[in-house]
Amino acid sequence: MNSTLDFSTATADLLTQELDKVVFSDLTAGDALMLTTTVYDGGGSVERDSWTSTYYADEDGKVTVSSLARMWNSYILDECMRGTVTPTSPIGGIVVEMEYELDSGGSGSCRRRLWYCRRKTGKTLAALAATMPLLATTRKVGASSTELVSVECPSGVSLRVTSTYVLNGEVLTHDDPLYYLATNAYRAVANVSPSVVAALLPVGGVLKEYKVYTDVTGAPGNDATYVVDDHHRPWNTVLCWLNNYGAWETITLGGIKSSVLDAKRETAIAGDGWTSFNAEAYETITAFTAHSTKEVGEQLRDISDTPIAFVFENNAWVRVNIEDVDLERRLPTNETTVGSVTYKHATDIY
What gap in Å lies between CA 173 and CA 167, rounded to an integer? Predict the structure, then answer.
């Protein structure tokens, strides 16, 4: 018997999309295969769910168990909701144990630690980790915007930044360490906002651009470049969401905002008379982009189906529900001309 899941490897870390399907082959047609699946918490010690299913080999001697990734992702989100979810903490994983037994003889079991991923990347977790930081692109950011970057790397990896700034009329560069990942840090989250980087510069230096990159024993890895937009944008809206790859991603929308208040009123007896009051009141807010690029368009498409999103208000991350995403593009260049995100706070305002 052969299987696409290597039962000879006791444990390993995978993206959920890597375990979307398990195929057992080289069986005798009609053979019964009993598969027991047990889901544990991220530490692999607390059982969350367990079930046993029986499959019968088809005429080609195969058993196919498919469409698993969506289920794994749901378990991961359920696990996250047991605690406090914030963009400054990485989304954890779950441990899945699979054990098979054939009526004709033979059995095996293995465990896999699974990490959230909504999109089939064609890469293993190890290969994806080699291209960190996750958002390797050039991004235009406001001087006051909040920027997070996710890092999936083993221990001993440094996150560094090379800054370009102006001081006394001269254009200079500066290289500094940002973070050192002392332990296995899959899905580590680092704050790489302009204010964090600017604090590393000499007094009087004005930050213009910076590049964040991973460094493994002196070998620079992938990088993300941020160009600082110093225009005054009084309506900045900073959104953060769980992207397709299970990482926190941020975008700053510098356009205008509009809001609509939806209040549902009810009438009830109070004392000697009737009174009217707001039973529920939700504010629907629409934030528009100030500048649009192909990268902004990709972010807006990604945020449209995220399961978790936040807005940065009053120096804190506030949970929101994404209601709608509008995206207009110019063809054939595929450039985004204008975009907007409509959201509501996750709890009513009263």
Answer: 10
Q: Which of 54, 15, 52, 22 is nearest to 37 (CA)?
A: 52
pLDDT at 59: 94
pLDDT for 31 equals 94
Q: Is the pLDDT of residue 175 over 60?
A: yes
CA distances from 200 to 142, 173, 177, 212 (A): 18, 12, 9, 13
Q: Which of 202, 134, 133 is nearest to 163 (CA)?
A: 202
Length of the chain: 350
Task: Please list the residues that pair with 220 across neighbouring strands.
Answer: 215
Which H or E run includes 296? helix 294-303
235-258 burial by CB neighbour count: b if 16+ within 10 A, else e?
ebbbbbbbbbbbbbbbbbbbbeee
Q: What is the per-residue pLDDT across 261-305, written as a single tens digit (0 to 9) for each? A: 777 766 766 666 667 665 667 788 899 887 667 777 778 888 888
Cβ neighbours for 69, distance < 8 A, ≥ 6 positions apart: 16, 17, 19, 20, 117
